Here is the input.
Amino acid sequence: MEKKVTKSTILKMKKTGEKIAAITSYDFLSTRLIDRTGIDLILVGDSLGMVIMGYENTIPVTMEEIIHHLKAVTRARPRALVVGDLPFMSYQASVEDAVRNAGRLVKEGGAESVKLEGGERYVPVIEAIINASIPVVGHLGLTPQSLHQMGGYKIQGRDEKSAEKMVREAQALEEAGCFALVLEGIPWTLAEKITDHISIPTIGIGAGIHCDGQVLVLNDMLGIYDNPLPKFVKVYDQLGKRITDAVSAYVEEVKGGRFPTKEHSYSKIKESEK
Ligand code: KIV
Here is the structure.
């Protein structure tokens, strides 16, 4: 069995220059399949609100929903490091809320670290969670929980002032003790600058090639989620179409009396079943 990925493995990858491959997962079977690929990090993201629950955005996602899916993922005992996402309003109101909820993701869900969105003003929250022995991943740029504050899903850090602010925020999150930083929806030049300025790995989504790693939402890259996707998503398969085609074939065969054939039927009645 390959060695378990830990926080230290992820930190070391920046030093050795090995790229970090991360992906989201929300259930037991997908996690088993994904974990055979050499993936380094699995995020049980609040994106589950959109791709699993059918919410319009990630804001309604609850702690219970994240824990429910974390349990399914960690039951697969993946080699990859499991990161649980802190949902909207699970850490914003107080440091105490944040520590308690981060603790729930680890204790009830089996997460090995937690992720939260936001910059410098979350430094006390991050420090308190780390003091409770829970590793933290930061998340800067286009942070979907701030949808209303941003006025939509807009690429962040496009002007000099906000770009400089983001570099400072990344440094503050590193100093607070984050072991990795997700950079979402920012110009690749800014992602490159942040990646060069900090010693913890950056994991990009819509942040270009120069990040230390990449993360994608599983359902997006498999072509299952059929809502419009942002430009940064590369769709590696069309599983959505394949699922519809397979189930259509089944429906046709059932309606046409062509399924089940003898191959899928039992021929003899056992004595004990009479
Ligand atoms: O919730 C999520 O899946 C995320 C990733 C897109 C980084 O935060």
